[in-house]
Amino acid sequence: MSGKSIKIRYFAWLRERIGKAEETITLPQGVATAAQLISWLSATDEGYAYAFEEPDTIRIALDQEHAEADAALADISEVAFFPPMTGG
Amino acid sequence: MSQATVTLRVQEQDFDQAVELASLTAGKTNVGAAVAFVGYCRDEEGTLNCLELEHFPGMAEKQIGTLCKKASARWPLSGLTVIHRHGKIKPGEQIVLVIATSRHRRAAFEAADFLMDYLKTSAPFWKKEHKKDGSNPSWVVAKAQDDQDTLRWEK
Fold first, then answer.
1. Of A13, A65, A66, the CB nearest to B139
2. Each residue of B64-92: pLDDT tens digit?
3. Which residues of B134-155 are buried (b: 16+ CB within 10 A; e: fewer)?
4. Residue in chain B lying closest to A82 (CA)
5. Tens-digit pLDDT profile for residues A7-17
């Protein structure tokens, strides 16, 4: 089975630390949840490692709905990572 | 209970509170109360040049829409208007508008308060401060108090 393609979006200081607003990747073998995707990305280079250095503070949206870190990516086409929100 | 009329906009341009209030109440003879909240950009003791608001287009509207549905389900509202700006905003300028209308005041007060609490913690917007002294712009850190405020509604 070939890996599925997934779009990842980054906002605020995550976007700045990673150096891009979005990318599309092929989901690697063994990456089934948002938390596993964070671990996998963090291992790819320093920018990601810096952005995700405190994974517990990162907020996650799957197809534009808030989600927990252990949420499954199986039926998801877009993952977004961002800091706690400061609107209003 | 009749459905609340919801107006929701995420936009760069400014808004006119009076126009929005008038459009929620015009011709409505069953509205007994309108509560409007406006959030402004502070100058932080004269140190702030401007705020830059980043947002997640699509999700911002979706989340605010969900919050409006929750408020409508919880209180007997006749109308709700939520406008949130993005982009660069100068001290003294308006950032956000929430108006709730109802037959009676309590529902309108509470719904506006509820919407502002949740807008701060669950609508995908992020503020960056640009200081007058030219130092590197910095992201505003989310306040624990804002999370505490939302918990009031979950009791």
1. A13
2. 999 999 999 999 999 999 999 999 999 99
3. eeeeebbebeeebeebbeeeee
4. B124
5. 999 999 999 99
> What are the boundaries of each domain within chain A?
5-82
**DSSP annotation string for B16-73:** -HHHHHHHHHTT-SS--EEEEEEEE---TTTTEEEEEEEE-TTHHHHHHHHHHHHHHH
The structural domains of chain B, ordered by start, are 5-154 (3.90.1170.40)
Question: Alpha-carbon distance A72 to A27, whole Å?
Answer: 12
Report chain B residues whose CB lies below 8 A from the CB of A84: 121, 141-142
* CATH number of this structure's domain A5-82: 3.10.20.30
